[in-house]
Amino acid sequence: MNRPLKLGIAGLGTVGVGLLQLLAEHGPRLARSVGRDIEVAGVSARSRGKKRAAPLEGIPWFDDAERLAQDASIDVLVELIGGEEGVAKAAVEAALRAGKPVVTANKALLARHGTELAVLAERRGVALNFEAAVAGGIPVIKTLREALAGNQIRRVYGILNGTCNYILTQMQEEHRSFGDVLAEAQAKGYAEADPTFDIDGFDTAHKLSLLTSLAFGTRVAFDEIDVEGIRTITQSDIEAADDLGYRIKLLGVALQTESGIEQRVHPAMVPKHSAIAEISGVTNCVAIDGDFCGNLLLAGAGAGAKATASAVASDILDIARGDNPPPFGVPAAKLEPYRRARLGQHQGAYYVRLSVYDRPGAMANVAGRMGERGVSLESIVQRRPPGARPGIDARPKLGAPTTVILITHETTEEAMRGALDAIHRDGQVDEKPQMIRIEPL
Amino acid sequence: MNRPLKLGIAGLGTVGVGLLQLLAEHGPRLARSVGRDIEVAGVSARSRGKKRAAPLEGIPWFDDAERLAQDASIDVLVELIGGEEGVAKAAVEAALRAGKPVVTANKALLARHGTELAVLAERRGVALNFEAAVAGGIPVIKTLREALAGNQIRRVYGILNGTCNYILTQMQEEHRSFGDVLAEAQAKGYAEADPTFDIDGFDTAHKLSLLTSLAFGTRVAFDEIDVEGIRTITQSDIEAADDLGYRIKLLGVALQTESGIEQRVHPAMVPKHSAIAEISGVTNCVAIDGDFCGNLLLAGAGAGAKATASAVASDILDIARGDNPPPFGVPAAKLEPYRRARLGQHQGAYYVRLSVYDRPGAMANVAGRMGERGVSLESIVQRRPPGARPGIDARPKLGAPTTVILITHETTEEAMRGALDAIHRDGQVDEKPQMIRIEPL
Fold first, then answer.
1. Which of A181, A183, A311, A320 has the most neighbouring CB atoms within 10 Å?
2. A435 DSSP 8-state letter
């Protein structure tokens, strides 16, 4: 048996406590697997007095995470503090500078400083592992970095935020409004009091930026992501999607195109009869299209103390075994500059919901504006108002807005936006048109 | 840059050719990732003269795979010959004895000799990697061995044979008979001329035996698997499943129970609205339930030259990087003996299809036999014969057999089989009852 691997754990929130529980429950199994004991040699957190559901007796306490990182008793820093600057960053840098491997679950830190930290880790010849930073218990980092290393990746995309997927699933299954479900999710603790970070897509974007680098060997480029959240999704979008054979999911998508890489976070339509459409509630998934592996889908728990601890443990065991792959799959010094594709050049089909004034010429105007830009339509659905009985209730007053749903054939984002802007300007619609991209699987 | 890693590739069938193509197309990318070139330093196959879609010029040819394995010019043996004995086994053993790591896609070899080969590899301190042996391009070996190493696994199960899943999907989607779809699959090359190995479940069992060892740290126990294939599945089972909210899939399941491990291959009902139910055609999937990671699902291409080559490449790159985990996650010498659970003790719900003679007392007999053994029923469906119109066509002649579908509540396999045997013996049914396990997700 080799000498034990000594961990310093910085941050004792739910994930830190989950990790301590995992190490306590499965210590002998882990030692057997890697041929050495895994010891917790030091911990650090903001408040020492706080009650925690973890066995902390006898473990040296450090008030300062940076000091913990540098302490001679520590072989590996496990950073579970969070936040893109401040203590977390200082501790991670201190550990790497001291030549110690780092395991972190901190997506914000890596989305902002991932490339520089990987360069630093590589210069010191130590691991920087971050399986827990993306999609919790789903081993997507290891999969992209190691298992699919023989592939040229064309696209990686997924459902990366459990809060959004929970809200969209509830809207779908219980026919409730966005605001209603959000309020309930907040009450249940699935959504934060300030939900912006989740529902406006930034959490998804943090995670996507790391997947992009792993998939394409490019520097982390969080600021280059086009981000839209799910606030604009209405019950009528959910129902229209269902009618047309789709589900709406908040996706993070990174796609290699001829002009560069598209990185985008937005609600998207996916076919109802597909595995990704069945990823419901807080479950996450990641799909990867590679030139040799084909289409791969990974689905599982995207968050939570236990699933995240499972990912952190995997990173620790790799270090215990002496495995030291480059953090982003290729050596950090060789990561290529990120080349952004113009989103206007994005090719795809679109769902459009219009609130059109019900008067002669309105639909002709809509169709004309589309046609001018070469946008052709696959389907048009105009329904009688909800509750109105066929042939019994009078049609709504001439001139009142009525909902029209369009599905286009493949076109460019530029053409699509141009057509919708023109329709809006022409005054034939009651509100800004809703546009949702259809993501091909 | 370190010295190149020199491969000897034994076997130039579709996978071997796929691997050569991958190495030719992505050589520079792989070298950049692992910091050294990957070279093909020798190849071996049965027939030298055969035309192959791979660049073989200049690569030393060996008529004898065992000699290739031992040759001083070779660092790693890549065994793509197949078969549980013979040349493949001799070559793998020769390489390991010579202290050379082995990459193999040979599930049959490992299902029969996996434990001994792992012991041999470990004694020589070299890797024995077999990502390609299970589920093609899906990285389930790495996931179980490394990514989930911090978990106690409770169950691993999946759709591991593309031929069976293709047949069941076609039966479902096109309402065709088993025999019809099988004949078509054979014509298209999706099924072998002798389809026994696939459709009777043995291929699935080979793969399952490896997943079991990885999940539970036990010696490979292929002979301990209860195997049933899909020959008995009829169109009426498919339709009844659909009515009741299920799909029928051929699953391999390994489950830790109190009395030991269940390893079983059989058709199973899974809920229609689940990701696994949407795994259609030749796609494979593996689901893993762990105590920390929760439920994880991996889905993708389970076979084919390219997907399998992707898996082989991943194994090679791990070796190039110097990673050397134990083949089955824990050191081979510490793999525990396999302790088989009694399948009679299997707990679950069941689907039953009976062809009951339509006469007074028949259903009372059926229900009585179930009740005697404590089997309670969740639902009973007896339909008018196909094509008969309600209240118009006369009921079938009294005494003619009519189809009755039962879904039981959870019970034991022993009770279930006892009840069905008794019903059969009582002469109330026209043919052996059909019984399909319902696999909870």
1. A311
2. E
How confident is the model at residue A360, as a pLDDT?
Answer: 85
- A295 CB within 8 Å of a chain B CB: yes
- Give yes or no: residues B10 and B49 share one domain: yes
B288 and B157 in a common domain: yes
Instruction: With respect to residue B23, please indicate whether it lies within any of the assigned structural domains.
Output: yes
Is residue A81 included in any domain, yes or no? Answer: yes
- Which chain B residues touch A214 with a CB distance below 8 Å? none
Q: Do A293 and B137 touch (CB under 8 A)?
A: yes
Which CATH number does the domain housing residue A385 bear?
3.30.70.260
Nearest Cα residue in chain B from A27: B150
Comparing alpha-carbon positions, the chain B residue that sits nearest to A332 is: B33
Up-side HSE of residue A109: CA atoms within 13 Å toward CB?
26
Q: What does the pLDDT read at residue A343?
A: 78
pLDDT higher than 80, residue B388: no
* Domain end among A75, A98, A133: A133
Give residue B416's pLDDT: 96
Q: What is the pLDDT of residue A226?
A: 96
**From start to end of B302-409, where are the E strands?**
347-357, 377-382, 401-408
Cβ of A329 within 8 Å of Cβ of B29? The answer is no
Extract the residue ranges of chain A whose pLDDT is less than 50.
none
Between B399 and A371, the higher pLDDT residue: A371
Which residue type sits at A208? Answer: L
Position A331 in a domain: no
Same domain, B417 and B285: no
Asked if residue A153 and residue A11 are part of one domain, the reply reads no
Q: Average pLDDT, stretch B246-273? A: 96
Instruction: Identify all chain B residues contacting A137, using CB atoms and an 8 Å cutoff.
Output: 290, 292-294, 296
CA distance A280 to chain B (A): 9
Range of the domain at A392: 344-438
Q: Is A279 on the interface with B (CB under 8 A)?
A: yes
A289, part of any domain: yes
Instruction: Give the separation between CA A405 and CA A354, rounded to whole angstroms.
Output: 6
Is the predicted pLDDT of residue B390 greater than 70, yes or no?
Answer: no
Q: Do B30 and B96 share a domain, yes or no?
A: yes
- Rounded Cα distance between B205 and B111, Å, is 9
Using alpha carbons, select from B131, B343, B333, B323 the residue that is nearest to residue B226. Answer: B343
* B119: CATH: 3.40.50.720
When CB atoms are compared, the residue of B142, B150, B317 closest to A142 is B142
CATH label of the domain that carries residue A206: 3.30.360.10
Closest Cα in chain A, distance from residue B62 (Å): 26
pLDDT at A2: 83
Residue A297 phi/psi, 5-degree rounding, is -125, 130
Is pLDDT above 70 for B393? no
Q: Same domain, yes or no, for A59 and A79?
A: yes
Write down the pLDDT at residue B70. 97
Contact between A55 and A43 (Cβ < 8 Å): no
- Report the residue of A26, A141, A173, A310 to disrupt the B interface, i.e. the one with the largest count of B CBs within 10 Å: A310
Q: Which residues touch A219 (CB under 8 Å, ≥6 apart)? A: A115, A213, A335, A336, A337, A338
B193 and B120, same domain (yes or no): no
Domain count, chain A: 3
pLDDT at B112: 97
- The nearest CA of chain A is from the CA of B188 a distance in Å of 20
Residue that is last in its domain, among B272, B301, B330 = B301
Shared domain for A17 and A149, answered yes or no, is no
- Phi/psi for B137 (5° steps) reads -80, 0
Q: Is the pTM of this model over 0.90?
A: yes
Cα(A137)–Cα(A310) distance, integer angstroms: 6
- Contact at CB, A149 and B313, closer than 8 angstroms: yes
Q: Does the pLDDT of residue B383 top 80, yes or no?
A: no
Structure tokens at A369: 């504006």
Cβ of A300 within 8 Å of Cβ of B299? The answer is no
